[in-house]
C-alpha cells in the first residue's frame, strides 16, 4: 500500500480481482457465446512457433460448447 501511496494514487476502497471472478467469468462466457473469444490451450512452444510463422491457431475453430467445456 505504501508503494501505491508513493505513486500519488488514492483510493476509497481496497478490492481484489478475485472478489469479481464471478462477474468476470460471466463476461467471458458471453464473449464465447458471441464467438468473440476462444480458449487456446496450445502448448507454449508450439504457440510461439505458430505466431512467428503467422499460422492461425487450431483453437480458433473451437465451438462455443468446446470453449465452455475447456474453460
Task: Reconstruct the topology from this structure.
Blueprint: H1 2-6, H2 21-33, H3 44-52, H4 64-70
Overview of the structural elements:
This protein has helices spanning 2-6, 21-33, 44-52, 64-70. 3% of the residues are buried. It is mainly α. The longest helix has 13 residues, at 21-33. The model has no long low-confidence stretch (mean pLDDT 94). It has a domain at 40-71. It is flat, with a radius of gyration of 18 Å. The chain is built from four helices and no strands. The protein is 48% helix and 0% strand.
Please give the share of residues in helix. Answer: 40-55%
Question: Structural class, from helix and strand content?
Answer: mainly alpha
Average predicted confidence as pLDDT: 94
Q: Over all CA atoms, what is the radius of gyration?
A: 18 Å
Order of helices and strands: HHHH
Low-confidence spans: pLDDT under 50, at least 5 residues? none
The general outline is flat
Question: Cα distance, first to last residue?
Answer: 33 Å
Count of beta strands: 0
Strand content: under 5%
Largest sheet: none
Count of helices? 4
Short characterization:
This protein is mainly α. It has 4 helices and no strands.
